[in-house]
Amino acid sequence: MGGRNVSRDRCILPSRERNLFSITNYAANLMLIQDECMKNTTLLRNLIFNPEILVIPVVHDPLCAKIAEQAGIVAIFSAGYANSAAYLGKPDVSLMTLTEMVDCASRIVDAVNIPVFADGDTGYGNVTNVIRMVELYEKAGVAGIFIEDQVFPKRCGHMEEKQVIPAEEMVAKISSAVDAKNDTDLVIMARTDAIAVHGIDEAIHRANLYHEAGADLLFVEAPRSIDQMQRICSEVTGPTFANNLPGGKSPFLTARELQDIGYAVVADATSCTYVIAQAVRELFTELARTGSSAAFTDRMILFDEFNRLVGLPEIRERERYYSSFCL
Q1: Which member of 70, 82, 106, 308 has the greatest number of CB atoms within 10 A?
Q2: Claim to verify: residue 202 and residue 304 sit in the same structural domain
Q3: What is the Cα–Cα distance from 33 to 127, expressed in whole angstroms?
Q4: CATH of residue 108
């Protein structure tokens, strides 16, 4: 394939002197990458199948991706809800095109060394479009992609009046995505929104069909109760994915509680976006009221620290190194 070589090794080593995992004190997690270099696709796959639940936040943009990595987060999401807000100032109602979504993910991939999971929405059409979607996301360097069975234009999974396509059509999309992979370790997740349309039994049935079609990870969106969550984790044949969304339709549980139910992965889907929105609204309200942001300086990363955050010292060091050839 052209573009970025997604099979390149990316090393995440203990010498970075940071917590490499979302939940601390898990020696089993650390053993996964102990002094090892591996593809990010392989690393993400290993984290999903590790006994400890993987916490994977959605990041708002490449800057937030850098902050997540430096804070010790091990994998991150580039998703339509945050991308629509960050790049369009709009809700998640299928306004972002495939190329716009790939561009968002590519910029996030370039900003960090940790695996990036990408949002494939509905696949942007039929199986032919799904194949192109996988090709473009692989060129961008993502470690995983998910596809959902909503009717296009789709809605955020916790919105009302969703519709789903026939299960057989979604099976074809998953099969085409699996066959389109250049890297066999690229993670394919299948999401079903059938609970809202047909109920929990149909949603579980669909998840199992999608697993049989080759999906590595299964996402039954928006269960309404812990009982439904327990059914999903006990009756779906593959590893399951939970979506933690403050104010959403599902119980908002801790990672430990979700792990005890049986989930393999939990996304923190909107917190980053919501925290940014609240902080910026408070800042600009103060600025409009007083004409100054001085009252917020204790809540800011200031000039020198911010420059370190975005890698300015490393850029200056590299410039000095290459300038030495001119002497």
Answers
A1: 82
A2: no
A3: 35
A4: 3.20.20.60
264 and 140 within one domain:
yes
Number of domains in the chain: 2
Q: Is residue 67 part of a domain?
A: yes
* Structural domain includes residue 238: yes
Q: How confident is the model at residue 10 (pLDDT cuts 50, 70, 90)?
A: very low
pTM above 0.85, yes or no: yes
Residues 49 and 126 in one domain: yes
**Residue 101, domain member (yes or no):** yes
Q: What gap in Å lies between CA 113 and CA 267, rounded to an integer? A: 19
What HEC string does the chain produce? CCCCCCCCCEECCHHHCCCCCCCCCCHHHHHCCCCCEECHHHHHHHHHHCCCCEEEEECCCHHHHHHHHHHCCCCEEECHHHHHHHHHCCCCCCCCCHHHHHHHHHHHHHHCCCCEEEECCCCCCCHHHHHHHHHHHHHHCCCEEEEECECCCCCCCCCCCCCECCHHHHHHHHHHHHHHCCCCCCEEEEEECCHHHHCHHHHHHHHHHHHHCCCCEEEECCCCCHHHHHHHHHHCCCCEEEEECCCCCCCCCCHHHHHHHCCCEEEECCHHHHHHHHHHHHHHHHHHHHCCCHHHHHHCCCHHHHHHHCCHHHHHHHHHHHHHHHC
* pLDDT tens profile 192-223: 999 988 999 999 999 999 999 999 999 999 89
Domain extent for 104: 10-277
Same-domain status, 181 and 118: yes
Same domain, 311 and 169: no
How far does CA 106 lie from the centroid of its chain? 13
Is 286 inside any structural domain?
A: no
304 and 198: one domain?
no
